[in-house]
Protein: NmrA-like domain-containing protein
Organism: Komagataella phaffii
Amino acid sequence: MTTVAIIGAHSVLFEPIVKALKQASNVKFPIRAVTRKIGPSEVSDDKVKYYEATADDDKTYDPVLTGTDVIINLTPPSVEESKYNSILKSIERVGVKNFKFYIPSQFGVELSEFPFRPLVYIKQQHSEKARKLGLKTVDVFNSYFVNKGGFLDTILAHLGYQGDNKVIIRGDPDQLFNVSHVDDIGLSIASLIDNVDKASIPDTLRIYSDRVSQKEFYDAYEKRHNVKLERSYESKEEALRKATEKLNSGFKPADFLYYLNVGVSQSPEGGFAFKGDGRDIVNPGEKYFKWRKFANFYD
């Protein structure tokens, strides 16, 4: 049986992962859920136990990680690299050899292909530091994820939506890119823990639910919301040039979704249209679950 700790109980991915882990046959309960401050809605039961821990004091992770086999980190990268890496200090104290593997907080763009490396440097360095400790570290990349009422539903800036039913389509409107439903991400993580031998797990796991083009996405959006969008277009070359100039003048956190959008515009490069070789590792021949189709994402 595998004891799992999830760092970041407020993440969009927390509930889908917990839901999938509850169905797993080899997960030991309770799942350990870590939050900075336990709120009224975070009630421990026989399936999930909440712990308080913070990157401000890495020793607060020790009680959670002691006796844990697999760590899933869902925390966003901190501006301060030392805080983002603080969990690694706790892992060292508890003992690297005590863990089966560690899933750092990647979950998105394939970092090695993303055109704006300074924006993902901390994430890349974090995984490298973890591996240098001798810790089996698995970067999970799933491109854009979709959660109803959230990303790629009501939050669309990272796909060029400008508000007021206006959208800038950057790059080829018909070029496919990868999208993942949050439930499929949860099921993939659960399958990785439940069904895949540690020795055969690669350092990088690339998964997705389906592929869609910007044109297809916004055609479906118009039908779903009964609206007509005003579409303007920008070539991939022009999009990259403008974004590079903007970044060179200084990064603003509010612009992060814009840079992701420009990454999509560079497809099939850019980190959002990668081959999903990890799909056959966590779900060979759809043995464990059916990958969701984009047409059914919003049901």
Q: What stands out?
A: The chain has two domains: 2-145+179-209+275-294, 157-176+212-265. The longest strand covers residues 27-35. The domain at 2-145+179-209+275-294 is CATH 3.40.50.720 (Rossmann fold). The mean pLDDT is 95.
